[in-house]
Amino acid sequence: MQEVLICKHGDIEDGTVRIVRVNEYDIGIIRQGGRYYAYRNRCPHQGGPACEGVRMPGVYDDIDENGLFHGQKFDEDDIHIVCPWHGYEFHLSDGTNVCDPKLRLRKFDVIERDGNVYVSA
Amino acid sequence: MSNAEAAPIPDFRDMATERFDTSMHLANAARQADERGYEDFLIVDVDSHHYENEASAEIAEFIDNPILRHEVKYQGISRKGITTGFGQYQELGGRVTRYPLRKSEHVPETPHRDITLMRRWMDAMGVDIACMFPTPLLNLGLVPRVDLEVELADAYNRWLCETILQEDSRLKSMLYLPFNDPEACLKTIEKYGDHKGVIGFMVTSTRYRGVYDNAYAKTYRALEERNLPLGFHTGLGGQEPGLSTCNRFLTLHALGFAWHNMLHLSNWVINGLPERFPKLKTLWIEAGLAWIPFVMQRLDNEYMMRPSDAPLLKKKPSDYMRDMFYTSQPMEMVNNSKALELTFEMIDAPNQLLYSSDYPHWDMDLPSTIYDLPFLDQAAKRNILGGNAQRLFNLEPILAEHKLAKQAAKRQAAPG
Ligand code: FES
C-alpha cells in the first residue's frame, strides 16, 4: 500500500467525481456531502465503469404499519453509486451492492492531510 | 515529508465536464476484449439497436404517402414523457447515463451518425459484425392503422438499406415485416431480399396476429426459398390486459419480453409450421433464455396427452425447439449457474445459440457473458459468439480493422 496524492482539497467539487489511474487501477474519487470516497472504477456485474455514473439517494416504498402503500420516497441518508452500464446500485458509504451485499466495489482509504487528498492503494 | 507529498497531481478525468463518448463509456469493455484475445476470432452481435427516431426527418423523406410523411415530419416516430404508453422509463430516471447523454455525442459529418455510433461500440466490445434493429418501431405492430405500418416500415427499410447498410459491410439487418398486411410482407421480401446487408426478416412480437394464418404461407415460402431466416423480436407489450397491471418496468420487462415470444413460438410449433416449412429457419430474439426450458417442458407434457391438437408433429415440441435459433441477451445469470448450464444443454447452445448485446439498451450483455462461462469449451464459445451466426446467415467473416491490425502485430512479434 502506498499513499498517492490525488488533488488539493477543494479541487473536486462536492457532488462530482474524478477518475484517476493509480498503479494498475482506475479509481473514482467521489466527493459527496463534504466527504471523500474512493472506489475502483470497475463494477462486479459486467465490469462497467461504476464510478462514472450518477449518485442518487436510494428509493424505498413507503409502507405503513397497516401494510398500506404511500408511494415511493428517496432516502437522502443512503446515497447510492449507480453503475451507468446497467444500473447496479452500491451504497456510497461502504461500496456494497444494495441487492446482494456479497457484491461490492473495491474500496480504498482516502486521507486528507495538510490541504491535500491522498488515496492509499 | 513523504515521497507522495512531493509528487505532482496525477492526470485525471473530471466526470462533471467530460463529454459523453461511446468509446470512453465502453473503455472497460475494450479492456475485456484485449484480455480475452477477441482479435483471434469473429464476433457477431445478432441483436443490437439504433435510435431511428433520431433520424425521423430523414426517414420521413422516404415515405411515399404525403399525408403520412407530413405526420412523421410533424410529430416524429416516437413520443416521450412520463404519460407515454406503458412502462416507458427503461432509462431508469437517468441512472443509465447513455440514454440522456447520447444525443450530445460528437461525430464527424460523414459517415452517417448511426454508422459512427455503431462502429464505436462494436469496436470497443470486439464485435465485428452487428445486426441492427430499430427501437421505437418495435411497437409499430400495435398501431391500428395498417396502412401506416406498411408505409412506415417500407420507408424505414429503404432508408436503412440505402443510408446505412449500403455504406458499411459490417452492418446488417433483418428488415421489418409489416405483419398486419400479409401481402405487404411478401412484397417486402421480394423488394429487399437481395439488398446488401439484408440477412433475413423480422416480425415484431408485440402484435395480435396468429403466426399460423394461411395468409402468411407465401411469406414463409418466399423466405424458405431464399434461405433467409425469420426472426421474432419481442418487446414489452404493456398493452396486454394482464401485463397492463404491471406498475413497475421491472415486472413488465421480465414477463412481457418472455411472454410475446413464448406465445408465437408455441403457436408456431403446435400448428406444425416446422413441418409445413421445413427449411425455414426461425430465430427468437431478445427474450433471454430462461423461458425456453419452461415452454419445452409445458408443450411436451401437454402434447403427449393431446396429440390431436398437434397432428402435424413428428417429434416432440422440444425437439422442434431445439432446431430453432435463439439470441442470448438478456441472459439470466444471477446465482443460477446450474440452471444456465442445463438450459444451454436443452437448447443445444453450441449449435443454436447466437450472441447478442442489445446495445445500447439498458440490459445489454458484453461478449464476456458468453466467453467467461466456465462450462463452455473454446469451440462452443466461438460458435456462440460468431460461428453459429456466420453459418445461419451465410456471412462473410469480416473482422474489424483494429482486430486485423492486432493480429498482424502479434505475427510480427512472434519469434521466428
Ligand atoms: S456492469 Fe455495472 S451494472 Fe452492469
Biggest sheet features of chain A: 6 strands, antiparallel
Give me the count of strands of chain B.
9
Q: Per the principal axes of the C-alpha atoms, what is the gross shape of chain B?
A: globular
Structural class of chain A: mainly beta
Outline the low-pLDDT stretches of chain B.
1-5
Q: Mean pLDDT score of chain B, rounded?
A: 95
Strands in their spatial order, largest beta sheet of chain A: 1-9-8-4-3-2
The named CATH superfamily of chain B = Metal-dependent hydrolases
What structural class should be given to the helix and strand makeup of chain B? alpha/beta
If classified by CATH, what would the architecture of chain B be? Alpha-Beta Barrel
Side-by-side strand order of the widest sheet of chain B: 2-3-4-5-6-7-8-9
- Rg estimate of chain A, integer Å: 16 Å
Ligands bound to this protein structure: FE2/S2 (inorganic) cluster
Helix count from the secondary structure assignment of chain A: 0
Q: Which of globular, elongated, flat, extended, rod-shaped describes the shape of chain A?
A: globular
Distance between the ends of chain A: 5 Å
Q: And the CATH topology of chain B?
A: TIM Barrel
InterPro entries (chain B): ACMSD, Amidohydro-rel, Metal_Hydrolase
Organism (chain B): Arsenicitalea aurantiaca
GO molecular function, one term (chain B): hydrolase activity
Keywords (chain B): Hydrolase, Lyase
Commentary on this structure:
- The complex is a heterodimer of chains A (121) and B (416).
- Chain A is mostly beta strands and 121 residues long.
- Chain A has a single domain (3-115), classed as Rieske [2Fe-2S] iron-sulphur domain (Rieske Iron-sulfur Protein), CATH 2.102.10.10.
- Chain A has no helices and nine strands.
- Chain A has strands at residues 3-8, 16-22, 25-32, 35-40, 55-63, 69-82, 89-91, 107-113, 116-120.
- Chain A is globular, with a radius of gyration of 16 Å.
- Chain B is an alpha/beta fold and 416 residues long.
- Chain B has one domain (38-413): Metal-dependent hydrolases (TIM Barrel, Alpha-Beta Barrel).
- In chain B, 45% of the residues lie in helices and 10% in strands.
- Chain B is built from 19 helices and nine strands.
- Chain B starts with a helix and ends with a helix.
- Residues 1-5 of chain B have low confidence and may be disordered.
- Chain B: One of its GO terms (molecular function) is carboxy-lyase activity.
- Chain B: It holds the Pfam family Amidohydro_2.
- Chain B: This is Amidohydrolase.
